[in-house]
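User: I'm putting together notes for a lab meeting next week and I want to include a structural view of one of the chains we've been expressing. I don't have a solved structure, so I'd like a prediction I can at least talk through. The sequence is below, exactly as it appears in our construct file.
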Amino acid sequence: MSTMRAVVVEAPGAAEVLTTAEVLMASKVGAEFLVKVVAAGVNPIDVKTRAGKGSWGAARQRPVILGLDFSGVVVETPYESHELKVGDEVYGMVPVPRYDGAYAEYVAVSALSIAKKPRALSHVEAAGVPCAAMTAWGAVVDVAKAHEGQRMLIHAGAGGVGHFAVQFASFFGAHVIATGSTRNVSWLREMGAREVIDYSTTRFEDVVKDVDVVVDLMGNAHDQTGTRSLSVLKSGGLIITVPSGTWPSFAEDVAAAGLRGTTYKVPADGQTLTVISRLLEYGDVRVFVDQVFDLEDAASAHRALETGHTRGKIVLNVSDG
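Assistant: Thanks for the context. Below is the predicted structure for the 321-residue chain, given as structure tokens.
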């Protein structure tokens, strides 16, 4: 049987558990595509899952291949008359660990989770889009209903999800207040934030009040950011928290404050990605790739993400396009 090169995890642990191996070739069934992966995005959930948290408990087989995001070239289609053809450049999101992920030379993916790659983007840039952009879209557009006159506080605005959230909220007319580090203050303004709070010098609750929505991309992983955010919301305001596992008392805390709150989990939705693609094509939204690593150096990519100081996205270069 044919094989492919992949980065695998046999047992959870530190970044060093990511190893390169030859595994069985990915194969499609039913309404799936087989895609040759050119580049794969690296996301915080990959790091959590590798460490034994995140989605690790749902993995039904070993080794686990991580990687939600891919950009690549169609090798096999679900059927002959599908609008996407062999040789087309596509990108999308794989629901790991239900599927093997994109830290591999090939990936099988549902027809519902794929879209044409924007021509304006390289494969490396495109691989940085799906999970982060669709998470931001879900929180900012689908749940928060970003609109003119709305005041929205976005934590970790310079991160993978954050830099898309800032752009989407600004595009739909919201007054965006973003938190970020000193080096990202001017950059976040370029992304569309009206106000930027340098968290290293200023506590956001000292300078912000009466916001309609908080998009919380930190939770309580650092300095109780999530809990502190409740004090800056206006009466009836909404907090959307994205990180999992950092704020166990989220629902109770929000209710006690008399506010509205929800978590958010992103689906692998090709239709949403197609809408986002149009914004990328027209230059209304852009993706920023901070660092690129070779597939075999996935451990270094995870260590870089774990520093918590990434601007935009980290991407793995898997193969030639």
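A couple of points you could mention at the meeting. The CA atoms of residues 71 and 123 lie 5 Å apart. The chain has a mean pLDDT of 97.

User: Perfect, that's what I needed.
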